[in-house]
Design brief:
This protein is α+β, with helices and mostly antiparallel strands. The chain has one domain (2-12, 38-216): 2-Layer Sandwich (Muramoyl-pentapeptide Carboxypeptidase, domain 2). It is built from five helices and twelve strands. It has helices at residues 2-5, 47-62, 105-121, 171-174, 180-191; strands spanning 67-69, 79-82, 86-87, 90-94, 103-104, 123-130, 136-139, 142-147, 155-163, 168-170, 195-199, 212-216. The strands form three sheets. Strands 3, 4, 6, 9, 10, 11 and 12 form a seven-stranded mixed beta sheet that branches. Strand 3 (86-87) and strand 4 form a beta hairpin. Helix 2 runs parallel beside helix 3 (105-121) and helix 3 (105-121) crosses helix 5 (180-191). The chain is globular.
């Protein structure tokens, strides 16, 4: 799949056009790193970062994602909006306000890439609280001296997932009871190379007791895509 082949190093504005237990975790998924920035990230964006984002845009086109360029906010390298609020066959619905919402191309591509896996897990709609916002990392009830990936447009806070039958699995209400859909989504995201981490009530019961925090996993260390 073109989106999968391109999902690691992307870059800047080009032509616009199942088991029941808790998931096993990667070592990096319980907490953010000290700097919390993607590999090779600089500001202003380097030439390699812009080249990488151009590749991301081509991958979105190849994946059939309807997107438009947007003005930068914060430290978003390549701000885009999604025309029909669908990525990888999954609908994305805000629980606060109305879109379109800005996100970095890298997050859009990661969501498009994992869409078929979320669908296989039973998800048809994702209801999110926020994407871009200027903030520092908050984990374990403490705010850290590191910029959140929300400020880069690379993170999304998800409050619930809706299945094919229309049932809404809400993190705050249903995760404590071991909801099967939420646990499967957690496993799916945690296992995906397109995402760096997922914070949930399991690994951060203080700051993430009512939502999943997911982060795209780009690398700007090289403009060449990862295999």
């Amino acid at each position: 799949m073109a989106a999968m082949a391109a999902s690691a190093a992307w870059a800047g504005p080009a032509a616009k056009s199942r088991s029941a237990g808790k998931p096993a975790r990667r070592a990096s998924s319980a907490k953010p790193s000290a700097s919390n920035l993607p590999r090779g990230f600089t500001w202003p964006p380097s030439r390699a970062m812009l080249a990488a984002e151009a590749g991301c845009e081509r991958a979105l086109d190849a994946a059939g994602v309807a997107w438009h360029a947007a003005s930068r906010d914060g430290r978003i390298v390549d701000a885009v909006t999604i025309d029909d609020a669908r990525l990888g066959g999954i609908a994305y619905t805000p629980v606060f306000g109305k879109g379109p919402y800005k996100l970095d191309c890298q997050l859009a591509l990661a969501l498009a890439t994992i869409g078929p896996e979320l669908a296989a897990a039973g998800v048809r709609e994702v209801r999110f609280g926020s994407i871009y916002r200027w903030s520092n990392v908050r984990v374990g009830g403490k705010t850290k001296a590191a910029l959140s990936r929300h400020a880069l447009g690379l993170a999304m806070d998800v409050v619930s997932f809706v299945d094919a039958g229309g049932r809404e699995a809400r993190v705050a209400r249903d995760y404590p009871g071991g909801d099967a859909l939420l646990l499967e989504v957690e496993r799916t995201i945690d296992a995906s190379r397109a995402f760096r981490l997922v914070l949930t009530p399991s690994n951060d019961p203080i700051s993430h007791k009512d939502h999943f925090h997911i982060e795209a996993n780009p690398s700007y260390a090289t403009a060449a895509p990862r295999s």
